[in-house]
Structure formats: structure tokens, C-alpha cells
Design a protein that fits this description.
The protein has helices at about 80-90, 125-140, 155-160, 175-180, 205-225, 240-260, 275-280, 300-315, 340-350, 370-385; strands at about 45-50, 55-60, 60-65, 65-70, 95-100, 110, 120-125, 145-150, 230-235, 265, 290, 320-325, 355-360, 390, 400, 405-410, 415-420, 425-430, 435-445, 450, 455, 460-465, 470-479. The protein contains ten helices and 23 strands.
Length: about 475
């Protein structure tokens, strides 16, 4: 094999940053002042792409979902339009929204009486007005909302003491009638609260289930009309399989009655994607049309990449989107550094995930300036590289002289290759089976700009030399 002249990026700025307009990727769905009627805009509803089923599609083309936000329960913040505008300006089109109320200043979903108790028969106008507000604002901006119905952290420890479902907090049932205690001091991962075992085949608790169903019905009344909503049953659960399956079927049946298509998943707690928990989703594509594999974002380096590639291989016979709605990692946070977070984000993008979103602070970068830089560059990258047709180089067979976690490749043989460098570095890219001339240009990720291109000839191994530090992507395009 022959080596050609090393390809290095220039540090000279040739042009100003040009942000991608999301209107080029998503259709405009004007919905007026009120909720959009069910069925309107059906052609634009989000769905797995028929031609590229590992990715989502809205309108005529597949779309990569990229995001970040400062809260997980985004509907609860006061300045949601400004936050979505900031997301859009950075190239984002994707948010997470847990139906959670445990933070200070949040509204619970039921009306509170003068006595201070809640009435579970009466919904809170403030709670559902906030949800409606988010849905409308996201819809107008072409932003996809991934909703999580139940967040286990609302149902244990301090949050449970304020939760309207707690027997002492409502006028609708007692401890004896509900089977619920007034205190669950253990971590919610212990699954002490039978609130999550009310469904048929488990505790089959008709009283509590009636209120749960009414709550979900109110959410669906608002969300089903919108074409830009995905549904996750729980936040990082390790509970019983039948709970999430019940609610996934419940949502799908409601959507059938409304005449629209919806897509559901469950988010399991296990960090290892090979864990049996994840088979409950991966083995049931009829129920779960996509999988959220966010918990893999606790892992780092090669293990993080390998886990995602294992899942892609596991569902090869029935490929579907793999979402990562939570990318952990921020300096001072509990789940790794900011570098961990940004590396995870890019390994997901290059590695074939259908979505990548920075988790809220302090566990993630949210929509911080650093997150914005990476979102903008990721959008520039997706616009230039046909990610939807590309295949990750799972075992790095086309990269030579590669150190662990140094670089990651996705490629379309004979057309394009993209190599992501986590922190500078130098590798060989084997083009010995290809012919012709390739233009090579570099994306300075945190600088949010492409560098000028150089031409190289295929037919051997070319050397890619990134600067000594920082995130860089080398893009090769056949001329």
C-alpha cells in the first residue's frame, strides 16, 4: 500500500459561520392559535424512514434529530419560546419532555383545593396549558418532542411527599383504599411504590389505574394531534415489563381511534445494552417501533461505541431508530466530564444513532455555549455527509495505526467517508479498494467551521493528521 501526502486541516478562517435553517430539513406546520385538528398534516408526521429505517423521517427526507435543553421537563419553564429559538439557532430540532413536576415552581397535573389537598377528578389548567404551550411552540419551529409519561423520581423520597397521588395529599382515596403509602424513602430504583404495578396481570388496582388512565388521556388529547411527538413510557425504569407494555398499547389504541400513527418505546435503566432489560424493547418491534438507548451514555470510549454497534447489529433483521435523548457528561456533574459528554454525542452521531441530545445540567451540557457549538457543527456535518446511507466502521478495519478511542469512521464506499477525532490524532484511512480523486476537508467542531479542501488520490492508505487537540471531523468526498 502507498501513502500520499498527509492531509491536515488549516487553521485559517475562510468564512463566517452559516447556521443551517431547519426549515430546509423539516416542513413548516403552521397550526394557528389553537391545537391542530387530528389528522391534519398527516404526511408530515414523524415516522421511521421507509428507505433508511434506522432514521426518522418527516416530509420527503430522513432527518437527524439533534438537541439539548436546560430542563428535562421543558414544558414547565416560563421562557420556552426563547429556549426553543436558541435551540433552533444552534441547529437543533429535538427536545425531551418528561411529564414531571418535582422541581421547585413546577405545577402538578391536578387541581389544588383551598384546603391544600388535590382533587384527582379535576385536572390542573396550569399543567396542561404549559404542555399545550410547549407543543405549539415546538410545532411552529419544527422541533420534535420526545415525551416521557412517567418519571419514577416523582414517586419516591421527597418528591412523593408533594405528589397529588400520595394518599395524604388528595381527597379521593385513603392508604387503605389505594394500597399506597405516604412515604417511600428508598431510591426509586428499588421499585417500592406499587403505583407502577396497577396494570392488569399485576396488582390490577382498578381505583388507581382509573386516575392514571384519565391523566394519560388528558396528555393524549393534547399530544396526538401533533405530528412531531414521540412517546417513551418511563424514565430509566427497572420495573416490570408489563407496566410499560400496557401504556404503549394504550397509546397506540388511542392513536388508532384518532386515525393517526404514533411510535412508542421504553427506557430501561441498565447501562449495558446487552442486559436482558433491553431485550424487552429490542425483541418487540411491533410494540416498540424505536429504542431509546440513552443509558449507554454512562459508558465512555471504546465501550460506548461498541455497545451502540452491538445494538445496531442485534436489530439488523428489523432495523429501526435508536434514540439517545440523554447524553450525560459535564464538568462538575456526576456522570463524567464535558469532554466525556461531547465525545459521547459525536460517537452517537457518527455511530448511527437516530438522535443525539445533551442532557440537562448538571448531568449534561444542556444548551450551554459548548453544547450549541457542537450542535451547530453536527448540523453542518449532517448537511455535508449523507449519514443516512453511511455505515459505521464497526471494528475499525479501514483505520490503520489507530489508538483506542482516537478516531471513528462512517463511510459510503466509493462516495464519502467521515472520520471523527475525539482529541486530535493521526490515523491511516484505507482507500486501497477505491479509485479516483477525493476532496478532503476538515470540520473544526468547536470553531463551527469547515476548513478549505485538499485533493487526494485513492488506491492506497491516506494519512489523516488532525491538530494536536480538540474535536475534528475529516470528510472525504469523491470528485
Amino acid at each position: 500500500m502507498t501513502y500520499v501526502t498527509s492531509v491536515r486541516p488549516s487553521r485559517i478562517d475562510l468564512h463566517a459561520i452559516t447556521l443551517m435553517l431547519l426549515a430546509l430539513l423539516l416542513p413548516t406546520w403552521g397550526c394557528g392559535d389553537g391545537a391542530m385538528p387530528v389528522g391534519e398534516g398527516v404526511q408530515a408526521r414523524i415516522h421511521p424512514s421507509a428507505e433508511q429505517p434506522r432514521y426518522w423521517q418527516m416530509g420527503d427526507e430522513p432527518v437527524m434529530l439533534l438537541g439539548g435543553s436546560r430542563e428535562d421537563n421543558l414544558f414547565q419553564i416560563d421562557d420556552v419560546e426563547d429556549h426553543l429559538d436558541l435551540l433552533e439557532s444552534a441547529g437543533g430540532n429535538y427536545v425531551r419532555n418528561t411529564m414531571s413536576s418535582r422541581d421547585s415552581g413546577d405545577v402538578w397535573p391536578f387541581a389544588r383545593l383551598e384546603s391544600g389537598l388535590y382533587d384527582l377528578e379535576r385536572p390542573s389548567e396550569g399543567y396542561f396549558d404549559r404542555l399545550s404551550h410547549l407543543l405549539k411552540a415546538a410545532h411552529e419551529r419544527g422541533v420534535v418532542v420526545q415525551i416521557e409519561l412517567w418519571d419514577r423520581f416523582d414517586y419516591a423520597r421527597e418528591p412523593w411527599l408533594a405528589n397529588p397521588f400520595r394518599p395524604a395529599n388528595n381527597i379521593n382515596y385513603t392508604i387503605e383504599e389505594s394500597g399506597l403509602r405516604n412515604e417511600y424513602p428508598a431510591h426509586p430504583g428499588s421499585n417500592d411504590n406499587p403505583f407502577f404495578r396497577t396494570v392488569p396481570g399485576e396488582n390490577d388496582h382498578a381505583l388507581i389505574l382509573r386516575y392514571q388512565r384519565a391523566h394519560v388521556d388528558r396528555i393524549l388529547d393534547l399530544t396526538l394531534p401533533y405530528p412531531n411527538v414521540l412517546y417513551t413510557m418511563d424514565n430509566e425504569t427497572n420495573g416490570i415489563e408489563s407496566w410499560g407494555a400496557y401504556w404503549a398499547r394504550y397509546i397506540q389504541e388511542a392513536a388508532d381511534r384518532a386515525g393517526v400513527d404514533v411510535y412508542t418505546t421504553e427506557m430501561w435503566d441498565a447501562w449495558d445494552l446487552r442486559d436482558e432489560q433491553h431485550r424487552r424493547t429490542l425483541d418487540h418491534p411491533d410494540l416498540y417501533a424505536f429504542a431509546d438507548v440513552s443509558q449507554n451514555n454512562h459508558n465512555t470510549g471504546q465501550e460506548h461505541w461498541d455497545n451502540l454497534q452491538w445494538v445496531r447489529s442485534y436489530i439488523e433483521a428489523d432495523p429501526r431508530p435508536l434514540n439517545t435523548v440523554k447524553t450525560y457528561g459535564a464538568d462538575g456533574g456526576p456522570y463524567g466530564s464535558s469532554r466525556d459528554g461531547t465525545e459521547r454525542f459525536w460517537r452517537n452521531v457518527v455511530g448511527g444513532a437516530a438522535s443525539a441530545r445533551f442532557h440537562r445540567p448538571p448531568s449534561g451540557l444542556g444548551l450551554s455555549p459548548l453544547a450549541q457549538a457542537h450542535l451547530t457543527s453536527a448540523r453542518l456535518f449532517v448537511d455535508a455527509f449523507d449519514l443516512f446511507r453511511a455505515q459505521p466502521d464497526v471494528d475499525h478495519v479501514r483505520l490503520t495505526d489507530r489508538n483506542a478511542n482516537e478516531a471513528y469512521l462512517s463511510h459510503i464506499p466509493g462516495d464519502q467517508s467521515a472520520v471523527y477525532f475525539t482529541d486530535g490524532g493521526s490515523v491511516g484511512l484505507d482507500l486501497s479498494g477505491e479509485t479516483g480523486t477525493y476532496a478532503v476537508r476538515w470540520l473544526d467542531v468547536e470553531g463551527r467551521r469547515w476548513q478549505p479542501a485538499n485533493d487526494v488520490e485513492a488506491g492506497g492508505v491516506i494519512r489523516l493528521d488532525a491538530p494536536p487537540d480538540g474535536h475534528w471531523v475529516a470528510l472525504l468526498e469523491r470528485l
